[in-house]
Each structure stands twice: as C-alpha cells, then as structure tokens.
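Suppose a colleague, Dr. K., hands you the sequence of a protein chain of 477 amino acids and asks what its three-dimensional shape might be. Before reaching for any lab equipment, you can write down a predicted structure in token form. Begin with the sequence itself:
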Amino acid sequence: MKKNIIVLAILTLVTYSCTTDLEELNENKKDFATTTDASLFTSAQYKLFNQITETSVNENIFRLLVQNWTETTYTDEANYDLKTRSIDEFHWEVLYKDALKNFKESKSLVSGIPDVRTNKTAIIELYEIYTYYVLVTSFGDIPYTEALDIDILNPVFDKQEDIFNDLIERLDANVIAKFVTGQSGFSASVDLVYQSDIVQWKKFANSLKLQMGMLLADSDATKAKTVVNAAIASGVFTSANDNMKLAFESAAPYTNPIYAALVLSGRDDYVPTKTIVDIMNSLEDPRRNDYFTLFEGAYKGGIPGELNTFGKYSHVSEKIANNPNLEAPLMTYFEVEFLIAEAIERGFITIGTAENHYNNAVTASIKYWGGSDVEAQSYLGNAGVAYNSATGNYKQKIGTQKWLALYNRGFESWTEWRRLDFPVLVAPAKAETTNNKPPYRLTYPDVELTLNGENLKAANASIGGDKMETKLFWDKN
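The predicted structure, expressed as tokens, is then:
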C-alpha cells in the first residue's frame, strides 16, 4: 500500500513552471496535473478505511460512544461533545470530500478491456454505496442525488429512507449483477483488499446487502426478508478468509491510526471502560487478554465520562495498541453469522438454527483474535453465554455477544447497538444527551448551517430534529 500512496503523493505535488501567459490564471494549480483511476481509487480507499478505524478525539469517537474506551486526559468526547472539536464535521468531510469525491473521479477514468472496466466500476460503486451507508446511518437525511455536483452549491438533503432503498437497488443493479467473475479488476497492487479477486468482492457485496437488509428488520420486515434471502442465495461470507479488511504499513504516516494515536503520539488518552471489562470478567471471556492489559493481576476498567487516571486501570492491549500493521476490517465472517442467527429468529430464513450460527459467530470472533476452538467451546459452555441459557431474548443474547465481538470496531458496534438495543448502555453522569443513553445519531456539521442553511432546516424538520437523541428511520425499538 505504501508504494501506491507515495505515488499518489508525488502526483499531488506536481507543479508547473512560471509563465506570463494570462490564460494560466484560469487553471486550477491545486488539482492533479495528470491522474489515473488507480491513484484516485487508492487514495479514496485509504481515506475511507482510515476514517472508520481512526481513534483521534478530533476525528472519530465511536469507541467512546459504545463504551469500549473512555478518556483520561479529557472528558468532553466520552460525554458525547461533538461540537467542541467539530467531530461531526470531520466525519462528514472525510467521507464526502476524501472518499466519495475521489471514488467518483476514479470511476470517470476507468481503463482496461471492457470486462475489466466493468469490474473496476462495480468495485468503485460498491465502495460508494458503503460510504453512503455510513453517512446515512450516521446522520439521517443527507445530500445524495445532488451531492458532489460541482454545479450545485446547495444540494438538497434526500430522505434517509429513500437513500437507503436506492443504495440497495444500486447494490443489485450496478454491483452484484455487473461483476464478471472470470476477469480481474484493479491490479493486485492497487486492490489492497482482495487483490483483484472478483469472487471475493461479490461475497462482500452480498454480505453488505445482508447487513443492510437486517437494518430494515424493525422498520420494514417484509422488505428486510426479501433482501436478506436474496443476499444469502447469491453468496455471503462463509469463512474468515472472506473478511473485508485492509492491512496498514509499518512506517508512519501509513500505520494503523490506532498505533499513531496510542503509541506514536506519546499520549495516554484512553483506558477500556468498566462497562465492557466487567461484562467480560463476569463471563470469563477468553478475549480479555487480547483486548486489555492486566492491572495488578486483574482486568479493571475506567468509569465512562469521568476523568480516569491512566495508571490505575487496564490499558488497550499490546496486540491492538502496539501493532502498526494491525488490519482494519469493514466486515467480517462473524458479523455475517450473527446476522444469519438473528434472521432465523425473526423468521426471515430457515438455514440451520439460530444457536448454531450464534456459536459459529462467537467461535469465529475468538479465533480472529488468536484463540482456539477449545477456548471457544469452553466459553460457549458458560451458562451466561450458551444460547439456550443466556439471559434475555434473542436480541439481548445476540446483541451482547456481537457488541463484545465488535470491540475496537466503533462505527459497526454503534450501529448494531442502536439496532438491537443491547447491552443496555447508560450515558455518563455528565453526558450531553438528555435521555440517559448514548447518541442515536451524529448532529449535522455547523458549517452546513452557514453554507446550506435552508436545505439543512428542511432536513432537521424531516428527521424530527437535529439532536443526538433523534432515532433514525430504521431504529424503531
């Protein structure tokens, strides 16, 4: 990946010699002099993964929202302050400007023989769909049909339901139906995820479709069932070999951003929370040593939202913090297995039993972190974990174990917590939400009020208010 990013940086720095020709005053000297579909694709791909994985309090606080971690130096972000550091604006800008804009430009430049161009276009489209999926599940109504149009300075905010439905249609028509599995796409050195394996890209497309279908389960069960069945029939992830992930580089600045935040920065800003540590302790979860360090012979978490002293609690494990190459997944096999278990419980599908797929998911998560089948079997034999004896209904059983499995996957964990409502998370005492819960959405960036005020006001009215407590259309319970 470093080779591709360096090439991209060189292209960015291309300049022109001085001239007295007045026509050059109309040239945009900040754009690429020359570029390719590959360079733009590489840049957009990296920016997307980096933002989803980021943990800087200036850029991404999803791990704090779902109480995986809490803070030691500041307390604002763990109390859901999105505005002081313009966190909502950063998330919005990176996804629109650095990811979607470059994906769009890359798509306009695709080259190669017809089937290769088709595959490249489908991969880019898939990334665009995923990026919009992140935006719409973060904010609600967003610019979509008029977004990225240079001639439209004030794009309308499309309704979140309409966007979501269109994304599923695009996934079917422009991605899944278009892939030519006998041909390549981007070269293996550019395609940093699947190295031009189109079969794998199609599996990811179907797995994303499954995820999107299940997101509709409480708001439109009929459509959810149709989407879920079609996704599974077309072929979703069936093993950890299918995981959609990107590996970072060993050298700065292209390391995993967690390493940059926790090691290269020289700062000690985070500790795991009492919320997650206590649950894992009560279940004797074998992943504790993969997630946390010991403190005085035990695992001890800080209080969410309070000013915790770094030296008095467990820390983020060396496996996570001190690994510049740590991979960043956007979707994994165990997530698919949890989704299938839930779909069975809801009566959407009849593929095996919910218990079997739940067990597969838990086992896959433990093995993902380096655990063994023996550890997984022992853990699943715990009465508090075993599907037939664990506390609560299927939402609580699946929701709790999925939240544990999605540790360090802030955005995905936040989305699934909002959807399943488990485990029960209580907001910190000084939280900026007013309902004693973590946020249900991100607020709109303040800059939108300045630059696109009328359309933003319409969006506020459409979604029920620009508040963190406002539930999105799919979040019905």
